[in-house]
Structures are given as C-alpha cells and as structure tokens.
Write a structure and sequence with these properties.
7-stranded mixed sheet; Hypothetical Oxidoreductase Yiak, Chain: A, domain 1; 13 helices; Ribosomal Protein S8, Chain: A, domain 1; two-stranded antiparallel ribbon; Wheat Germ Agglutinin (Isolectin 2), domain 1; 3 domains
Length: 336
C-alpha cells in the first residue's frame, strides 16, 4: 500500500502552477490548467488529475503539447461550430470548447462544438460540470489512440473513448463520466500503483484469460469493453461521430502516431433552464433521482448511488480535510 498524505487544495494548486510556469505556460493559463488538475484530484479522480501531471509535463517538454496556442474557429453552421485545437493543452482547449457550446445554446437552445487536433483533456466530467453550472445539460466525448480490441478480437483497434453526460441540480448534478472500457487506463494505473487487484474483471492477460490483475491487462493491452460487444460498438460509433463532427482524425489515424495527439472531441450544451425554468428543472430532476435512490439494495451490497454522488462526497471531504495524495508522487512533483 502506498503512503498517502492530505494536502490543502491551494497548496497543490500553487505547486502545480509553479511547475507549469517553469515549462513555458503564461501565468493565467498555468493557473487555470493547474486548477483543473487539482480539482479533478479533489473530486476523487486522481487517475485523471495529479497522477497524470508528470506525464503531462513531459509532453509539454517534448513539444507534444503546445503551451502558447489558442484554439481557432474553422467553420460555423448555426448551432454547430468546428474548431482547431492546434495541439495545445487539451484541458484548456476543452474548457473553451464547452464554454462556446454553452454560448451557442443561449441562442439556439442547443450548441455543439467539434474540436479537432487537440490533446488529452484528462477528465471528461470537468466539461460536463461546466455546462451544468450554466444551467445546461452537458454532453461531451473524445476519441483516443487504439486502446482496446473490438469484441471477438485480440488486436487493439478501438479507443476507450471517454464520454460525460451531466444534468444540472442544485444539490449536486447527476454526472455520468465513463470510458468505454470497464476501467479507464488511468484507473488501471491507480490500482497498479497501489498494488491492488481490481474489484471486477477488467480485461485479459496475455493468455486470453479474464483477469482482475491491472498489471496483466496493461501488459496485454486487452482492456475489456463495457457490456462486451455493446461497449465495443459504442466506442466505434463515438469515434465515427467525433471524426465527422470535428472534421478531425479518427482512432485509426491517431494510432499511426508514436504517441496520442491530435484527437477529435465533441462538446454539446442543451439550455434546459432557459427552456423550462429553474424550478421546473429542479422539481423533475429531484423526483427522478429520489425515486432512483429509493431502490432497496441487495443483501450485502452498498446503498444505491446516482452517478456523481460519490464525487460530491469526495469533494466535500477533501476540501474540509485536505486532498488525499500519494506521498511519493507529491515528492516527485515538488522536485520538478
């Protein structure tokens, strides 16, 4: 088991900002980027927060991620726009794209931005939450380098293509944030780092047997799609849609590069608060969620939770007590 330590939000934010300034980010962009990494970790998603930070810095140093570029509008079709991310920081590009989708939704009821030629956005939920805070349903997804075999194959051909759907709610939004693999690559890394087995089979070992060993899955490169053939098919159609909506590269094209870059992403905002009014939205969402939570749990199983409920609990605890951080990882970042 790794040694963990609780560190205040602002201390982590300041330390990450220091590193990003040192590798070439302008101050406001360094602060915003560092804030997203810290926020993801605070929400209990260290796999797409602090754990990814050293690799992100390496990508900046090698030039894979450009520090001083801004996404550019390429095409506009009313409620739909296409933007070029210019291989900039995926977190900042994605945030700008979702903000633009929200702006478009104010005039059209729905806004959609296809973003091409960008980099890893870390956590899909970050941008869904941004839409929910603006009173919109937020939907976004990305394609990736090939990380999974299609159902019935051992050859990696499809991305795990994470997606997020977020519905606004005063008590805390409903947030579905998931990859098309049973466990994201980042989550497999977390279990490997901790020396723990997965709670459920997450992929295949090199002999083709289902396994709960994260190291064996990362070694074989055979992550298990959610819902078996259904997850495999969903990953494929998300890739197809992202490629066409963003007019960008597909998983097949991205996978021809040495490292993942130049991915295609989609950001949608649906302005339900303007259409229905805040009170009506709250009443309906609460009725659905309360009915969902009334479902009695099976004997020996934990209580039913709606998507995003665990994240809110983690956020409250980490803001109150300090964010739980892997001590070895934290020392590594301090030495950067």
């Amino acid at each position: 088991m790794r040694h963990m330590k609780r560190i205040p939000f602002d201390e982590i934010w300041q330390e990450l900002t220091r590193v990003l300034l040192a590798v070439g980010f302008e101050e406001s962009r360094a602060k915003r980027c560092a804030h997203i990494f810290t926020e993801n970790t605070c929400d209990g998603v260290a796999s797409h927060g602090l754990n990814r930070f050293p690799a992100f810095v390496t990508d900046v140093k090698t030039g894979l991620v450009k520090t001083r570029v801004e996404p550019e509008l390429v095409n506009s079709f009313g409620a739909l726009e296409q933007w070029d991310g210019k291989r900039g920081a995926g977190l900042l590009n994605a945030e700008k794209a979702m903000k633009r989708a929200i702006e478009l939704s104010r005039g059209h009821g729905i806004g959609c931005v296809g973003l091409r030629n960008t980099n890893h956005w870390m956590r899909a939920g970050t941008y869904g939450l941004l839409a929910a805070e603006a009173g919109c349903i937020g939907i976004c997804w990305t394609n990736t380098i090939a990380l999974m075999p299609p159902w019935g194959s051992a050859e990696r051909k499809i991305g795990n293509n994470p997606m997020s759907v977020c519905i606004p709610r005063a008590e805390g939004p409903a947030l579905l944030d998931m990859a098309m693999s049973q466990f994201s690559m980042g989550k497999l890394e977390v279990f490997r780092r901790r020396g723990e087995e997965l709670p459920f089979a997450g992929g295949y070992d090199e002999n083709g047997a289902l396994t709960t060993n994260p190291n064996a899955i990362l070694k074989s490169g055979r992550a298990l799609p959610i819902g078996y053939w259904k997850g495999s098919g969903l990953a494929l159609v998300l890739d197809l849609m992202a490629s066409f909506i963003a007019a960008g590269d597909s998983t097949q094209e991205i996978s021809q590069r040495e490292k993942e870059t130049g991915v295609s992403q989609v950001f949608m905002a649906i302005d339900i608060v303007s259409q229905m009014g805040t009170a009506n939205v709250e009443e309906k969402v609460n009725a659905i969620i309360h009915d969902f939570l009334d479902a009695s749990a099976l004997e020996g199983s934990p209580k039913v939770h709606y998507p995003g409920q665990g994240m809110l609990a983690s956020r409250r605890e980490n803001l109150e007590k300090g964010i739980l951080v892997d001590l070895q990882l934290w020392q590594m970042i301090q030495q950067m």
